[in-house]
Amino acid sequence: MTSTEQLDFSQTPLCEAVIGATRAIRADFPASSVQEQLATLVAEARRYVGSEQDADMQLEKLLELFYRQWGFGGASGIYNLSDALWLDKVLKTRQGTAVSLGVILLHIAQALDIP
Question: Is 115:55 a contact under the CB 8 Å cutoff?
Fold first, then answer.
């Protein structure tokens, strides 16, 4: 993807749309690194959640993995808002806004076919 004009935001998965929009805003955005980190999280989540057949249990295990084991959570105290919004920063610090955390969590859930 070379420009946001080529991206149909109505048909693009949320995480991919966020990455595309961020690339248009930030020349220094490490899109390939973010995609690699997300792929690593998906693979780890697949191993952790994969044994469950029930969708509710899959979601419960994913939430446990995401918030407890991986330590993702809301940014607190004094912080730069951009550090809590940009996916590369959130993946590094595991601290973000509800929106940035939701984008990552939804990406993983979608990759695992968890409704």
Answer: yes
